[in-house]
Amino acid sequence: MRLVSAELFKLRTTSIWWIMGIILIPLYAASVGFNWLSSYALTSGQAGNGGGGTREAQVQAVSQPINIATNMYTTGQYMGVLIVLLLCAIIVTSEFFHLTATTTFLVTPRREAVILAKLGAGMIVGLAVWALTTVLNLILVPIIMDALNLPVQLGEPAVWRAIGLNLLAFMLWAVLGVGLGVLIRSQLAATLILAIVYTVGAAVVGIIFTLLSQNVAEWIGKLQVLVPTTASELMLSGTELPGNPPRWVGAVVLIGYAAVAGVVGTLITKRRDIS
Amino acid sequence: MSAPASDDIVVDHLTKQYKKLRAVDDLSFTVRSGRVTGFLGPNGAGKTTTLRMLLGLVTPTAGNATIGGQRYTELHDPIRHVGAVLEASSAHRGRTGRNHLRMICRAAGLPDSRADETLELVGLTPAAKRKFKGYSLGMRQRLGIAAAMLGNPRVLILDEPANGLDPEGIRWMRDLLKALAAEGRTVLVSSHLLGEMQLLADDVVILAAGRLIRQGPVDDVLGSMGAAQVRVRTPQAAELADALGKINATVSPQPDGSLLVSGADSAAIGHTAFTSSVELHELTPERGDLEQVFLQLTAGMAGIR
Q1: Which of A102, A107, A268 should one mutate to test binding to chain B, selecting the residue with the greatest count of B CBs within 10 A?
Q2: Residues of A contacting chain B (CB within 8 angstroms)
Q3: Do B200 and B235 reside in the same domain of the chain?
């Protein structure tokens, strides 16, 4: 436990946490605006005319008030997870960037304990960002729901389940961030690669999957759940959506990635020469 | 040989093979407690690699290194036993010196007050709340020593701690390390500042190309490299050289006009000069010079491998 507190102390005594905080605020505001607009489009029936088949059924499903509610009450997940992912990678890479790994491993030669502490600190970071966005959502979303002439729905179990699963997503992405920070030791490379892959990469992979499933075989489209961002979106979707794998598949995929990244990262750190 | 005392450092047939480079090659030596041991070698001799293996940061290809009979990684609370200064630049640039030390205290379960105590010990209290990026190289060295002293360890291992220190700082560090050794602690200091080492170290371990060249007390190592020399100045150099030749002393004229005489001590040289009516202007015994001995011992083994 003292190692986790040391890791949090490290994070607190440099400027990275408030820099990330300042970046998060406008990104959260943009997410609120975007979700408001898309919910408005869904409720006023402007979205997704045509297309037919599964697509139409999906649009109908997400237009249901409960699904709009779960989406709205988890606003900020996309950007918040990005910030958590980067912060958690930096928790690891900054040790090598600032040559503090030597000191860290001199104090604690059991390196797996250091990585576990970093995982713990990362999950606390994830918890903090989740708590911040969730509190903001609980304040702002009822006002927006009111403006959309939808019920507030804070009594619905599905809403609270979505908020809980949102926390799980933050935690898993934190673990993923620490693991990937070990794998990509260069601070600059880690931040750039993770930020680009998370934002642009997911979209590109989405397009590739769409093209493959349209032109090669329909079943390839179902593999899209293997993309981490898709998996975490799937995990959050309020009720089962037609044509999508069940929600737990998303959770399993994310847990799998987090476990692999955490274990591989620990093993690599244990063996690596620190010089 | 007696059994190692509880704070001795024992390096036993240590080897580190990188892909093509054998950085450390079957190296064995012992560092005794209560003394300052200088760890000397040309650049690239394997000093830093050896220290990193000793501290569990680099895995040896073969062999063993123990501190008080235990490997560093097996020590329960390592920084209460062993303090190490490996890189002067190893702190986060944006963190204050005091927070750097507190961070170590947190991880090691030491009270935060140790940070302020060691800052005081190394004279950094006025800069405690300044960020590391504003520290001079000398201040960084002092912070490193403060970090090493947090756990009040019995064993100190320092890699080039004199780098970047001003004369006053070097003197401060020499006094500190000597005092720590006098308290019975083990002090191992690597350096290539040989003049400084001659003043500081009791024992030396000389390394070149990854191998042990010589180990022992400084005076023994100096004494083993030929007899001491005496510097002589005289306006009658040729006559003195003749006279000294008769008592089997060797005379080598120096570019500055003086003579370096070996094979006779200053008394014998003075007597010879007196009996042959040679006027002397200087008669100085020269102590063996660690730098000369070092260069002789490592000749041909230095340099980039």
Answers
A1: A107
A2: 2-3, 5-6, 9-10, 13-15, 94, 98-100, 102-110, 271, 273-275
A3: no
Could you give the ipTM of this predicted complex? 0.83
The 10s digit of each residue's pLDDT in B16-65 is 999 888 999 999 999 999 999 999 988 888 999 999 999 999 999 999 99
B253 lies in a domain? yes
Whichever domain contains B246, its CATH number is 3.30.70
Query: What is the dihedral angle through the alpha carbons of B195, B199, B205, B209, rounded to the nearest 10 degrees?
Result: -10
Q: How many domains does chain B have?
A: 2
Do the bridges between strand B62-67 and strand B36-40 make them parallel or antiparallel, or are there none, so unpaired? Answer: unpaired
Q: B185 and B156 in one domain?
A: yes
Q: Are residues B176 and B263 in the same domain?
A: no
* Pairwise CA distance, residues B50 & B57, whole Å: 10
Q: What is the pLDDT of residue A245?
A: 74
Residues from chain A contacting residue B59 (CB–CB below 8 Å): 271, 273
- Residues B209, B234 within the same domain: no
What pLDDT digit, counting tens, does each position of B229-273 carry? 788 999 988 888 888 888 888 888 888 888 888 888 888 889 999
Residues B171 and B34 in one domain: yes
User: What digits encode the pLDDT tens for the residues A102-134?
Assistant: 999 999 999 999 999 999 999 999 999 999 999
* Whether B185 contacts B156, CB under 8 Å: yes
What is the domain extent for residue B249? 229-287
Asked whether the whole model's pTM tops 0.90, one would answer: no
N-term to C-term CA, chain B = 35
Distance separating alpha carbons of residues A226 and A232, to the nearest angstrom? 10
Mean pLDDT over the full length of chain A: 85
